[in-house]
């Protein structure tokens, strides 16, 4: 059964950033203005920087295990997970037209009139629907972002009344897209297991019926991007976040594989859209470091817990970097 979070504060319609953008305010509302220590540093992106991001060629992982191509790509995957905590996947096999279609229906949804989007509200105590999640107090700063989130698998976590009727092709496109991403996640976890010397099916057997959800984020342009945050710094509560690896993998590998902290910033003139899939163990599954990865040189760093227990903790706390990982850490005290 899905965890039941406590009730956060319901954000008013006046805080809808698309509506704020339409009004073209000369001053950013105080609710969105970050404290000096939280404001983003908007350094220019260097063209060469993209070449440093780990790239995994998925087609090479499909080669026979005794080939040089496979072994080389497994090494690349290990390095990406240990040193970065995220990587870009190329030649993943998902049809480009499907990726374009999900982007189109997502953008079309956000461009609907506010009255239409309000038919699918993110009610207090939930993380599905349209609105802002992780808001728990009236004075908490808001992200310069509109969100639309849905539970996808298993069907028991879905809230059918939140699946929109407009655009008309939205539900069918999301179903097709989520099916392909699910297969990709299953395969990536298989190769991640191999990369740390485990059986390829170890995560599939452990996860049970994996939980899958999607969150769509729309970031309108902001006249003062130096004052706001598109999405607060955080790391994800899933095993895999497409395309970023999340916190459960950090626990399962006893800290060997990273859980990367990330954020989103805004742009003065351009809007931005992201579609994020979260793939995680069944809520009933107990999570803890794999015994094969614990020894006297690498003692156990995390306690065991049910994934449902952790998910409840994650959705009932505001985004605060990697602090939610403290939930699972074993605390060491000095008794002297």
Automatic annotation (TrEMBL):
Q: Which domain of life is it from?
A: Eukaryota
Q: Which UniProt keywords apply?
A: Iron, Metal-binding
Annotated protein name in UniProt: Uncharacterized protein
- What sequence ranges are listed for the domain Non-haem dioxygenase N-terminal? 53-165
Entry-linked PANTHER family: OXOGLUTARATE/IRON-DEPENDENT DIOXYGENASE (PTHR47991)
User: The Isopenicillin N synthase-like Fe(2+) 2OG dioxygenase domain covers which part of the protein?
Assistant: 212-247
List the top taxonomic levels of the source. Answer: Eukaryota, Viridiplantae, Streptophyta, Embryophyta, Tracheophyta
């Amino acid at each position: 059964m899905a965890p039941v979070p406590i009730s956060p504060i319901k954000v008013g319609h006046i805080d809808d950033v698309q509506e704020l953008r339409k009004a073209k305010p000369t001053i950013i509302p105080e609710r969105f203005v970050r404290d000096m220590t939280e404001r983003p540093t908007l350094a220019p992106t260097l063209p060469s920087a993209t070449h440093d991001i780990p790239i995994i060629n998925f087609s090479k992982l499909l080669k026979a295990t005794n080939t040089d191509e496979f072994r080389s790509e497994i090494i690349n995957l290990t390095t990406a997970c240990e040193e970065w905590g995220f990587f870009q996947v190329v030649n993943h096999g998902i049809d480009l037209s499907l990726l374009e279609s999900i982007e189109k229906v997502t953008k079309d949804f956000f461009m609907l009139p506010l009255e239409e989007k309000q038919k699918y509200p993110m009610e207090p105590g939930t993380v599905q629907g349209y609105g802002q999640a992780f808001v728990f107090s009236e004075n908490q700063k808001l992200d310069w972002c509109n969100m639309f989130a849905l539970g996808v698998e298993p069907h028991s976590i879905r809230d059918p009344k939140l699946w929109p009727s407009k655009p008309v092709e939205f539900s069918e496109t999301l179903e097709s897209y989520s099916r392909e991403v699910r297969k990709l996640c299953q395969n990536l976890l298989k190769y991640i297991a191999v990369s740390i010397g485990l059986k390829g099916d170890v995560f599939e057997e452990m996860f049970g019926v994996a939980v899958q959800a999607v969150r769509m984020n729309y970031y309108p342009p902001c006249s003062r991007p130096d004052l706001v945050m598109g999405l607060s710094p955080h790391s994800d509560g899933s095993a895999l976040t497409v395309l970023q690896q999340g916190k459960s993998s950090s626990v399962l590998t006893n800290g060997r594989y990273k859980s990367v902290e990330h954020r989103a910033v805004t742009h003065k003139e351009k809007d931005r859209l992201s579609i994020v899939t979260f793939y995680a163990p069944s809520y009933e599954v107990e999570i803890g470091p794999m015994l094969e990865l614990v020894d006297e040189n690498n003692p156990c760093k995390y306690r065991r817990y049910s994934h449902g227990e952790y998910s409840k903790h994650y959705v009932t706390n505001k985004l605060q970097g990697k602090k939610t990982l403290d939930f699972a850490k074993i605390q060491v005290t000095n008794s002297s």
